[in-house]
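A quick aside before the break. I want you to see a complete sequence-to-structure record at least once, exactly as it would be stored in a machine-readable document. Don't worry about memorizing anything.
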Amino acid sequence: MKLPIRGLILLLFGASVNAQEPASCETGLARFRSGDFDAAQDFLWECMESGSGNETHALYLALTYRPLKNYKAGLTRTQKALRTFPENVDLLYIAAYLHYRRNETKDSMILASKAYRLAPNDWRIHQLFALNYISFDMVEAAKLSLQRAISLNPKNSELHYQLARLYFTLGSFVDSIEESKQALALSPDYAEAYHNLALSYEGNGNVAAALQNFEKAVELNRKNKRQDEWPLIDFATYQRMGGQPDAALPLLEEALAINPRSSKANYEMGELLRDLKKYQDAKKFLQASFDLDPCNARALYGLALVTRLSGDMPGSVRLMKQFKELEADNKEGEAASRKCQTAR
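That is the input. The structure line, written in C-alpha cells, reads:
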C-alpha cells in the first residue's frame, strides 16, 4: 500500500530525527571525556530531552555542572522537563544533584527521596544521599549509603574514593587506605585517590609511602593539566612539617599560581616564610589568607605572631585580641558562620 506523499515525508522526517538522537548521546559522552564540558552539556541535554538518554547520560550531564557551575540554568531546564515527566528518575537525580551543589540540601533530599521511591536500587541516589548526609554531619548514615551504592555498583572508582575520604575524616586510616587502593585498582590514574592515600599514610605514620603517593598525585595532575592546588598544598605542608622548607617552597608557589585566591595556600606560604624568618613577606600572605577567609582564626593567630617577630608589639597585641574574639565567635557555631559569611 502506498502512503500519501505527506505521510511519507513525516515518516522519513521522524526516522531522520530518531536516527540522530543516539548520536547526540554518544557525542555528549565523547565531549565530556575530552574535557569540552560546554558542548557535552548541550549534547547530553539534547539526548535526555529526546527520550534517548539512559542512566549514564544523565550521570555525565549532572557532572558537567561541576566544572561549569551554571547550576541555576540547569535547575531551570530540569524543572521544566520535570513538569512534563514528573516521575523520570534521571531528571529527579539531576535536579537533586544540582540542589546539592548549591548547598540546598533539604531540596536535594526531597527530590532524592522521591527518586528512591521510584528506583530503590539506583546507586546514584544512594551516593547522593551520602553526600547530603555528610553536609548534615551524619557520618554513619553517609557511610552506610556509600557502602550500599558500592554494593550496587562495585566497579565505580569514585564511590570507593568517596568512602576512602569519609574514612579519612573519621581517622580510620587503614580503611581509608584500603578503599583508596580499591579506587586505584579500577582507575590507575586517579590523582585524588593517590592524594587521599598520601594523607592516610601520613596519618598512619608511614613516611615513605606518604611521600611516594604525594609525588604521584602531583605528577598526575601536572601530566593531565588539572588545575587542582590541593595536592600541592598538602604535600608542601607535609614537607614543611618534616623540616624540608626548600622542598615546600616551589610546591606552594605552584599552588598559588593555580589559585592565588586560595586562603589555605596563602596561609601555608605565610607559615613557611615565617619559618624562613622572612617576616614581612610572611605578613602579606597571612593577611591575604585572613582577607580571603575572615573565619580563619589560625591565619589571624599567625599574623599576630609574625607581627610580634617583626618588632611591632602593639600591632601584635591588637591582632591577638582580635584572634581571641574570633575564636570565641567560632565556638558559637552557626551564628558565627553567618557573621563570617557577612564579612565576606
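Two observations worth writing down. Residues 114 and 343 are 37 Å apart (CA to CA). The chain has a mean pLDDT of 90. We'll return to this after the break.
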